[in-house]
Amino acid sequence: MPHFSWSAAEANTEAPGQPGSPPTALTETIAVLEAGAVDRESARRLPSQEIRDLADAGIGKLRVPAAFGGYGLDWVATTRILLAVAAADSNVVQALRAHQAVVEDALWQGDTFSQRWLHRLGEGALAGNAWTEPGAGGLARSGTQLSHGPQGPVVHGEKAYTTGSLFADWLDVTAADDQGRELGVFVRRDQPGVSVRDDWNGFGQRTTASGGITLDGAAVDPAEIRELTDRFPYQTALYQHILIVALAGIAEAAARDAAAEVSARKRVYSHGNGDSSAHDPQILQAVGEIDAAAALARASALSTAQAIEDAAAARELAEEEQHRLAIEAELATARAQVALHRPVLDAVTRIFDALGASAVDRAKQLDRHWRNARTVTSHNPWIYKARILGDYRVNGTEPVRLWSVGTPSSSGAENAVPEKGSPPDSGPAQHDEAVRNSATGGAN
């Protein structure tokens, strides 16, 4: 049995035995997602229908309260389900990353705007991000402009690393108005003036739809505009948590595939250790090492889920306690990121030691595990997280929760990160110079 499964009791749904609860509706959908993963990877086919099926089964409303049509799960129960999705196809859990942040911000704010959005999310709507911008410029100012046309507000601009937005109903867009205020606006994706491109060219996580968006006079409902302030304080940690879930899913998929391939293998080496690969102790050792890495990654993801849950549960507490728990969540996800990158990358390479040269057959797509893991671990560079952890341990320096990436201006005047607001995206480190992001924590 794979590690990444869940039961009704684990999911802790409001009505676990009823049709439509996450264990009932999602189990079959996730199995279908897993069954098609190799074919999608071979053809580089986007999981558009699969994500819509998951949305219909409730993947987008795991955290939405029952009163708004969701399941009201905590972050540990939610993470168990997301781990199963990640093990089926790590691209999909990353593609839904920005959506999770939109849900979380609505839960945190609790105002009329957010309640309207919780109703919308409870009805199955999916949200994607459009925050990061291509090109040079300041690190914390949006180049996308909100203006007022004859028919009302419109936005113009270019966005990059819009992971998952091709699958979304709504785009969470950052823009500046004529007064220079930084705004968050929600834009319908299926309208004239919005062009979403599948031009992500990474060698891993190839079907996350992390391409660009052109906004050319896209209409904005005035009710969907608000200042980009006071985002939920653990947003950076949440974005990193979803990447940890993706990494854990990749490790589990590698362990699953390694075991299946070894079990089915008929050929043996004359200088091996028996008449069956399934009983060769050296091969079993290799598979066991992959299994251990997958278990470590799963435990790390569930641990960071608890830290995220603690931060989320602080909404009614004093601001000082909110700050403390947000810092704890940031530290927890940083530790997991630093601790996991080497074991998981080693594990997804070790699979080839267990199987030999036949494992490199393109039809098997076993290299996708390394390509996906290497891509995920290239986000939000772990070397900086290790330094931040050391600085905290030695000097008590709190991690920076609002950070950005881009090309600095010569004057430095535009490089400061705002005190309030925490836009999402940052891409893999190798693309940083081509992207500017008024963001924390990466939604790519």
From TrEMBL:
Residues 248-380 form the Acyl-CoA dehydrogenase C-terminal domain. InterPro entries: Acyl-CoA_DH_C (IPR013107), Acyl-CoA_Oxase/DH_mid-dom_sf (IPR046373), AcylCo_DH-like_C (IPR036250), AcylCoA_DH/ox_N (IPR013786), AcylCoA_DH/ox_N_sf (IPR037069), AcylCoA_DH/oxidase_NM_dom_sf (IPR009100). Residues 38-123 form the Acyl-CoA dehydrogenase/oxidase N-terminal domain. Transmembrane segments: none annotated. Keywords: Oxidoreductase. This is Acyl-CoA dehydrogenase family protein. GO terms for biological process: L-leucine catabolic process. The keyword Cell cycle does not apply. SUPFAM superfamilies: Acyl-CoA dehydrogenase C-terminal domain-like, Acyl-CoA dehydrogenase NM domain-like. The keyword Oxidoreductase applies. It comes from the Bacteria. It comes from Candidatus Nesterenkonia stercoripullorum. GO terms for molecular function: 3-methylbutanoyl-CoA dehydrogenase activity; flavin adenine dinucleotide binding. Residues 1-24, 405-444 are annotated as: Disordered.
